[in-house]
Amino acid sequence: MNRLRGIFDSPLLRRVSWHVKRITGKMDGRFFTSLLAGLAIVIAVVSGIVWLSDTDRGLGDFGASVHWSVTTVFGQGDASYVTTPIGWAMGWLLGLFGVAIVATITGALVGFVIDFLLKEGQGMGAAGYKDHIIICGWNSTARDLVTELSTDAYESEIVLLADLEHNPAGNDVYFIRGESSNADDLNRAGIEHAHTAIVCPSDPGNEADMSSILTVLAIETLAPQVRTVVEVNNPDHVDHLKRADADEVLVTSKLASHLLARSALYPGLSELITDLVSGGEGSELYRVDLPEDCLGLPIDEVSARLRRDHGATLIAVTRGDRTHNNLKSDFVFERGDDLIVVAESLGDLNPLQHSTAYSEA
Q1: How far, rounded to the nearest angstrom, does the alpha carbon of residue 236 sit from its chain's CA centroid?
Q2: Vertex 328 angle, CA 323 and 331, to 5°
Q3: Where are the domains of the chain?
Q4: For residue range 305-317, what is the model confidence (pLDDT) as tens digits?
């Protein structure tokens, strides 16, 4: 049952369903209603004529005539069922209707497949994913971001929403062409089912930051549970994004200047930080759930267990909406705490559940 449910809940079927709703919403249903009504009338009339001309006119014979008429329409009728010229003429008539109906259905299916492929290739489809990451906007940061996310152990699906003519992120990223502040385009990207939206300014100007603010407002209106992470050009706009309920705001220029300053004072720090956050040759930063066997233990013992059992080094602890580092040795872990660690991989550690992250915002 779970496997069957997983098949019907697949992203591809959700995309097909979205396209079917889109096409049928624009289609005049009266044509198909008239076609089916006409077919039903023809089958009823022909069945009655064949019942009168080629059978003993019993009640069972009428049912057999209806069955023959229906199967003849779909090309599976028994030609030997009718033996009179009238029956033969009815068979030819039904065969003609069958060809017309099959041609209509085939044309509709072929048209749908062509429309589906064209819309998908142009970024006019719907993602159909759940628990995925949406990148709103495209710039050099987004390009590096895609590479980093694609190689992370969490293996989350990625959707790019950008007003571009083609997909710049490669085949592993589902592309939606549209405006990141537009509700319809966000819905096509699956904003209600995403766990994180990353907003990247399309250019280094202030107008791009204004667009990012509008995007955050749209996301908070449609899906307030989705975590929003925003790259901002101008540090003066951080407060505006916070007021728009952005969960995290990153000023890349400010971060770079701080890192350069620390590297000037303490050589080698830039290489270390870059390696930690970019998936280099060493380990990476992870935010994970507190293992059950660490509940109620002091920080020194938990640090030792993480190092021994998981090859991970404890960096900080998040409790509630605050992150604590360089904790004293009398710190004791409680339920609900989560950890920020440095490790080569997640291994047996569980990445922090997104519902937990949402509750902190």
Answers
A1: 33
A2: 75
A3: 2-121, 133-255, 283-360
A4: 998 888 888 989 9
What's the token pair of residue 134?
A: 């949406």
How far is it, in rounded angstroms, from Cα 8 to Cα 11? 9
Q: How far apart are the first and last CA of the chain?
A: 36
237-296 tens-digit pLDDT: 999 999 999 999 998 877 777 777 878 888 877 777 777 766 555 567 888 898 888 889
SS3 152: coil
> What gap in Å lies between CA 97 and CA 91, rounded to an integer?
10
CB-facing half-sphere around the CA of 106: CA atoms within 13 A: 7
pTM of the predicted model as reported, rounded to 2 decimal places: 0.65
Beta-bridge partner residues of 162? 177
Whether 220 contacts 210, CB under 8 Å: no
> Following DSSP, what letter does each residue of 204-267 receive, concatenated?
SSHHHHHHHHHHHHHHHHH-TTSEEEEEES-GGGHHHHHHTT-SEEEEHHHHHHHHHHHHHHST
How far apart (Å, rounded) are the C-alpha atoms in residues 126 and 177?
A: 10
The CA distance from 231 to 239, in Å, is 13
Amino acid present at 173: V
Which CATH number is associated with domain 2-121? 1.10.287.70
Give the ranges where the chain is alpha helix by DSSP (H).
Answer: 2-8, 11-26, 29-54, 59-73, 85-121, 140-150, 183-188, 206-222, 238-243, 252-265, 269-277, 299-305, 354-360
Instruction: Classify domain 283-360 at the CATH class level.
Output: alpha beta
Task: Compute the distance between CA of residue 3 and CA of residue 15 in angstroms, rounded to an integer.
Answer: 19
Task: Find all residues with CB under 8 Å of 103, minimum gap 6, and list them.
Answer: none
Report the CATH architecture of 133-255: 3-Layer(aba) Sandwich (3.40)
